[in-house]
Amino acid sequence: MKVLNWYDLLFRCFGLVCFTLDLLTKVMLEACCMVFLLLFCYQVASAEIHREGHYVAAVYEHRPILNPNPATLTDRRSALELMSRNLYIYEEQVIAAAKQGAQIIVFPEDGIHGFNFTRETIYPYLEFVPCPQSVKWNPCREPHLFSDTEVLQRLSCMALRSKMFLVANIGAKQPCEYNDPLCPPDGRYQFNTDVVFDASGTLVARYRKQNLYFEYAFNTPPEVDHVLFDTPFAGKFGMFTCFDILFYEPAVSLIKKYNVKQVVYPTAWMNQLPLLSAIEFQQAFATAFNINVLAANIHHPTLGMTGSGIYTPLKSFIYHDMESRDGRLIVAEISVMTPEHEPHLESNMMYDNFTLVLVWGMKGELQVCANTLCCYLSYQRPTISDELYALGVFDGLHTVHGTYYVQVCALVKCGGLSYSTCGQEVTDATALIDFQLGGNFSTSYIFPLLLMSGMKLDFTDHLGWKNNYYFMSKSGPSSGLVTAALFDQKSKGKFT
Fold first, then answer.
1. Are 155 and 168 in contact, with CB atoms under 8 Å apart?
2. Chain centre to alpha carbon of residue 309
3. CA of 94: how far to CAs of 156, 158, 308, 460, in Å?
4. Cα–Cα dist 387/236, whole Å
5. What confidence tens digit (pLDDT) does each residue in 74-111 have?
6. Over the stretch 367-406, which tens digit does the pLDDT of each residue have?
7. SS in 3 state form for 420-444?
8. Which of 253, 272, 340, 418 sits CB 3.0–4.6 Å from 276 for a disulfide?
């Protein structure tokens, strides 16, 4: 209100002055005043909503509309009608969260379809969820690309219209081959699945629950999912579901291996005192690992289900109510938890064991070392893409298809969103990255490699030595970056 009152007073003062001016001058002055005030108001509003080093998160404790007879088989149309009633509530909460400046919202486990199904009776509620690393898909914009994705389409459109990241839990189905030794007799896997949409509505992450809690309708995934997704406001987030939080895999392993500092956590948690109430353990987890946890629980007090919150190591915003029949939206601004350092990982690339550090966020500076070689990367990109990059270093003897000593600093696109895919053969990319890559090489015979999407070449802007580091830099790339590397081969003779 202060801004509006100030604007009104200023505009009236200008009006008195402008009264004596000619019409053209008056119009120009009023236009300038209006532009200035709009910019001022925008800056004030932006500063209040999105402060540097902070983000606005939302979680919704949802009281789901349930199927009264979950053990009875129904058809897809009836299943969609029930899920649609819950999705209407989700849409209302997304709008409410958006009005409060939320940049990410988390919904609970089982919130859309409910619970207590058998393997057969849950089938009409299941959606097909493609792997986001295999296909880039925006369900809201491309609704007919896959069948049985009506729920995904609704969720995608919520994210798109509100311009926020959205995390929800659904049931998913995945066909499997009968020669798959783990394939169930009915020829399909059924997974308890979390999905994440970015602010454009694109599906960017999928997590399949590892530790099922008497959930006979679902299968345990053949392999543990370690799922991360990147955001422009808080960097990388990790994700797991409900009962997972009590186990090393995936919860502890994910946090330690990838140095995760923000976690989204859909749950359908039944409180068990004195040690395992929802808010009690969620806070303990955030404190133990010095992370932020965005936890959304089901609200069903008769089953002992309540307790959601936005947790930080020092302060939390919670909801726990065993009396009310209503859910609750929690919105809070919290500080971005930043890792003290990025963890160093190992991965095989070109038959050599590279030490890697993952590249997250829209900009940053990284360093990784092996033996005597240290590689340095400074990078910036205009947007976050659903692609993973890594900075790798190798300083040692290459022994496959020839023997020679090499030193390599490499910025590479990974084959998927897991660090184990870094070093795989990749030919296509969309990320436009400005970078400076350098290393303290021990010889002056260094080969700069720059490969773009579609096996196309580009040229560096600068090459040369500075402070005992050999650098290459590139700004404004012509297409997506596949590989940027500095390669030093020190053997006598030729390459083989």
1. yes
2. 19
3. 12, 7, 17, 45
4. 12
5. 999 999 999 999 999 999 999 999 999 999 999 999 99
6. 999 999 999 999 999 887 778 899 999 999 888 887 888 9
7. HHCCCCCCCCCCCCEEEEEECCCCC
8. 272
CA distance 362 to 380: 6
Are 356 and 391 a contacting pair, CB within 8 Å?
yes
The two three-digit tokens of residue 468, written as one number? 């005992």
Q: Which tokens go with 207?
A: 């997590």
Instruction: Name the nearest CA neighbour of 298 among 64, 57, 94, 83.
Output: 64
The position carrying tokens 């509309």 is: 65
* pTM for the model: 0.72
Cβ contact 172:128 at 8 Å: yes
Per cent of the chain over pLDDT 70 is 88
CA trace torsion 290, 291, 297, 301 (10° rounding): 20
HSE toward the beta carbon, residue 192, CA cutoff 13 A: 29
* CA dist., res. 490 & res. 371, Å (int): 15
Query: At CB < 8 A and 24+ separation, what contacts does 359-366 make?
Result: 359/388, 359/389, 359/390, 359/391, 359/411, 360/230, 360/235, 360/236, 361/230, 361/232, 361/235, 361/236, 362/232, 366/342, 366/391
pLDDT in tens, 437-491: 999 998 888 999 999 999 999 999 999 998 889 999 999 998 999 999 999 876 5
| Model confidence pLDDT, tens digit, residues 476-487 | 998 999 999 999
Tell me the C-alpha to C-alpha distance, in Å, between residue 281 and each of 130, 251, 263, 273, 317.
32, 13, 14, 11, 14
What's the CATH number of domain 50-335, 1.20.1560.10, 3.60.110.10, 3.40.50.1970, 3.30.470.20? Answer: 3.60.110.10
* Mean per-residue pLDDT of the chain: 88
Is the confidence at residue 7, as pLDDT, over 90?
Answer: no
What are the residue boundaries of the structural domains of the chain, listed by start? 2-48, 50-335, 345-489
Tokens standing for residue 286: 């955030």
Catalytic residues: 109, 209, 242
- Tell me the sheet residues that pair with 366: 377
